[in-house]
Design goal:
Chain lengths: 278, 121
């Protein structure tokens, strides 16, 4: 079973929910931090990293001795990563998404692909769980292929917990795709609600069942609650604002190690999700 | 030989558009006769690489010099490879700009004037 944790708005508590949920489930858990632009779950799970692998995407290299500058490659590139001039072809590798279309459609076979490294994945373990995350290179924009590489490590027989990046664009879709369930973590503020509504639209479009966790639930207003009731979205858990949790967070300590009663709540959250999915 | 000026409108009285890749219009002018042709920029809404696309458009037009507000690194590389001189930091109307160019007051730059994504909305 694959459970992803997303949010829309950043800083609502995705990693808090994901790590505490993973630590509360007693069996065969695999934890994937897919927020490859700024992974932080390792701060709470403290895994021993056993293996690091470089991840690359294929980018075009032009053999100008074979090229007749027909411009076909540039026409089909949706991201303008190629510029064909009168007697020259320029390639902009940082704009290339690595689809391979230019090589495939070049009538003269003048394009070959070379690897461009975009980041690494690190695989390790922490107590009973397997830990994998991606780290995108600095100044790199192409995160979806790295997220795919992290997700290629999924072992379907395990309980897979995916910590997704914030937002609602390509990296989020790549991270939550093929989940059996998605937890949307939000806060009861106008910003939390605005981005929750967007995230709900994305998940409905992807056909992924979901529910909401409201963090800092005793601040703000009741508009998130009203939205969920109106749209029949289950509210799975509420975590009130608590200074003890905030202090533990700042020291990299999971909630369940600070306030042990929360462990029961996270186990209940998991069981509730299993019931909804089955 | 023609020059090209990025413009907010489609005639010589229009103001220069300070963005290159995502400008409203390209105005191609013959600096001797002031005859011109305005082309609406098809790359305004490009997801990325607008500067590269606009650079190619200019390269395909036999233009000697492009005059604009700013040019980013990708557009500059494309224009340089195509042998087009780049003049930046110019403001005012298209007509005044052509006159300044004719008087030799405008000098080409040797590198990009701004970073990538400068002209993103």
């Amino acid at each position: 079973m694959i459970i992803s944790i997303a949010s829309g708005k950043g800083g609502t508590g995705k990693t808090t929910i994901a790590t505490n949920l993973a630590l509360s489930i007693k069996k065969r858990v695999q934890f994937l931090d897919c927020d490859v632009e700024e992974p932080n779950a390792h701060i709470f799970l403290k895994p021993q990293i056993q293996r690091t692998e470089a991840v690359s995407i294929p980018v075009p290299e032009i053999d100008e001795s074979k090229c007749n500058f027909c411009g076909r490659c540039q026409e089909i590139c949706a991201y303008n990563a190629l510029a064909v001039l009168k007697d020259k072809v320029l390639t902009f590798h940082h704009l290339c998404h690595g689809c391979g279309g230019c090589r495939l459609l070049c009538p003269l076979n003048a394009i070959k692909e070379v690897d461009r490294e975009i980041g690494v994945i690190e695989v390790g373990s922490s107590n009973n769980l397997q830990f994998i995350h991606g780290r995108l290179n600095i100044n790199e924009m192409m995160s979806p292929p790295l997220i795919r590489a992290v997700k290629d490590c999924i072992i379907p027989t395990k309980i897979v917990i995916i910590d997704a990046p914030p937002g609602t664009s390509c990296p989020v879709i790549e991270a939550v795709k093929n989940s059996d369930f998605c937890i949307l973590v939000t806060e009861p503020t106008p910003f939390g609600l605005n981005d929750l509504v967007l995230a709900v639209e994305v998940l409905r479009r992807l056909g992924i069942p979901f529910g909401v966790v409201i963090n800092r639930s005793d601040i703000g207003d009741d508009k998130v609650d009203n939205f969920c009731h109106k749209d029949n979205i289950p509210i799975l858990m509420r975590i009130p604002f608590n200074k003890q949790i905030a202090i533990a967070y700042s020291e990299g300590i999971p909630i369940i190690d600070t306030i042990s009663e929360y462990k029961k709540e996270f186990v209940a959250l998991y069981k509730n999700i299993v019931k909804i999915v089955r | 030989m023609e020059i090209c000026i990025t413009s907010k409108g489609d005639n010589l009285d229009s103001q220069i558009d300070p963005r290159f890749g995502r400008c409203q219009y390209f105005i191609f002018v013959d600096p001797e006769t002031f005859e011109f042709e305005a082309i609406q920029n098809p790359n305004i809404d490009a997801m990325g690489g607008a500067g590269i696309q606009s650079g190619q458009l200019i390269a395909g037009k036999q233009v000697k010099t492009i005059i604009t507000g700013n040019v980013g690194p990708n557009a500059f590389q494309t224009l340089q490879a195509a042998g087009v001189d780049v003049i930046t930091s110019v403001a005012g109307s298209v007509k005044e700009t052509v006159e300044k160019y004719v008087r030799g007051e405008l000098k080409p730059i040797q590198g990009p004037s701004v970073n990538s994504k400068f002209g993103m909305p």
